[in-house]
Amino acid sequence: MLDVSENRPAFKEKSRAESVAALDSVDYVAINNCPTVSDTIRFLQPSIFLKGIDNINEPNNMVSELLLEKDAVESVGGELKLTDEITISSSDLLNHFFSFFSKETDEFLSAFSKRYSANDLFEYIEQIKDLKILVIGEAIIDEYQYGTSIGKSNKASILALKYRYAEKFAGGSLAIANQVAQFCDNVDLFTVLGEKETQQEFIEKKLDKKIRSMFHYKKNSPTIVKRRFIELDPLSKLLEFYVFDDTKLDKTQSKEVIDHLNLIIQDYDVVIVSDFGHGMFTYEIINLISNKSKFVGINTQTNAGNTGYNTISKYPKADYICIDEPEVRLDAQDKEQALEEIINKLSEKLDCNHISITKGRRGCLTYANGEFYPIPVLSGKVVDSMGAGDAFLSISTPLVSIGTPMDIVGFIGNAIGAMAVAIIGNREPIDKSSLSKYIKTIMNNKHMR
After folding, report:
1. Domain ranges, ordered by start, for the chain
2. Are strands 212-222 and 186-196 parallel, antiparallel or unpaired?
3. Residue 70: helix, strand or coil by DSSP?
4. Residue 9 and residue 23 in contact, taking contact as beta carbons nearer than 8 Å
5. Could you say which architecture CATH assigns to the domain 124-448?
6. pTM of the entire structure?
7. Sheet holding 132-137: strands in order across?
8. Which residues on neighbouring strands pair with residue 324, listed in sequence order?
9. Is 46 exposed, middle or buried (0-12, 13-18, 19+ CB in 10 A)?
C-alpha cells in the first residue's frame, strides 16, 4: 500500500525549481532550506512578497502564519501582496486522479468525510490551544549510532560495521512535551534526571522554548540513555544499550516528588503521564496522579527495560488510556480474546470511559462509553516507528479532555502517527501547520467527491 507521505510531494523540489527557472521573467531560482517562510524573508529582504489569496481561507493556524510572514516582510521594509487568480493545486490533481490508499482506507475516508469536514477537525485542534498541560514521565536520551556493514569478523560471530555518524534526540517525556507544545501554548514538564551525567544542558537546548521544566534528580544514577546501533542503508536497528538505573525512587525522593506534585497538579487542565517503567513512578506517586488530576491521560510502555512488569493496571483509575495492542493484551494476559472484550474489561477495571488502542499497520481502535471506532492506518511507508505512539498520545489526550468525538480523536491520532513514522527518531515534532495540511490532503481524496 502506498501513502501520501511516501509519494508526496509528487513534484520534487528540483522539478519545481526547473519549471520556475524556465520562465522568461525569472532570473534566478534557489531552493529554500529555512525552517519557516519568515526566516527566508528576513534573509532575502524582498521588496514584495507574493502570496495566493486562497491562504486567507485556510485554518486559523495557517492564517496566523500568514500574519507572521506579513510582519517579517514589513520588518525588512517590504510589502505583502495577495494574488487573486485561478488556483491549481498539485495535491488536488493527484487526489482527483490517483488513490494512495488501500480500499479499506478509501472506504473509511469516504464515510468519514460525510460526517466531518477538514475544518471540523481543525476547530477541535484549535480548541486545545489554551489548555494548561502537565507532562509527567521519564526523561530519555535516544542516541542513534549509524554505520554500514562491512562483513562478518573472521575470528568471531560478530557483524562488523563502519562507523558513519551519531545523532542524539530528546526522547521519552521530553519528546512528548515537545510534541504537545506544537498545539498547546501552556506546557510544563515534570521529570526525573540522573544526579550524575544529567545531560541537562542538552535537554534544555532541545526542549521547545515555551516549555517550563521541573527537574528532580535521582541519586547515584545517570539520566536514561537508550543507545541504538543502526545499519544505515537500509535503516535497520541491530542492537541497543540501556544506560540507566531502573530501581524505584527511594522513600525520601518519592516524598519530594509527591510534595511537589501535591502543590501543583490541580493547577492543570490536563495531565499526560508517559510511564516507561524505569523507576520514576512509585505506587504513592501513581495514586496521587490518578486521584488528584482534573483530567489524566496515561500511557504505560512495555520495553526491554521493564520486562513486561509495567502494565496499565498499576494505575487505579484514568480518564483516558492510550496504549498499543500488545501492551493491553499483556495487561489482560490474553493473546486471543477479541480486543473489544479486553477494552470493555479494562474500562470497567480502571473506571475509564475513553480508550485508544494503537495497532501499528492496522490503524487504531478507539472507545468511548461502550462504543467502538476502528480507524484504518493512514500511512504505508515506515522509516522509523519510534515516537509514533508518543505523538498519538500527545495530541489525543488534550483532544479527549475537551470532549472530541473518539472517531475524530483516532483519525487525528493516526494522521500524526503517519507523519511521525516518516521521521527518524524524535528528530523533530510534527507542527500544527504540517498536520493541518496533511489532514486537508487526505480528506480531499477523490473517493470523497
Report:
1. 4-101, 124-448
2. parallel
3. helix
4. no
5. 3-Layer(aba) Sandwich (3.40)
6. 0.80
7. 212-222, 186-196, 132-137, 270-275, 296-300, 320-324, 354-358, 364-368, 371-375
8. 358
9. middle
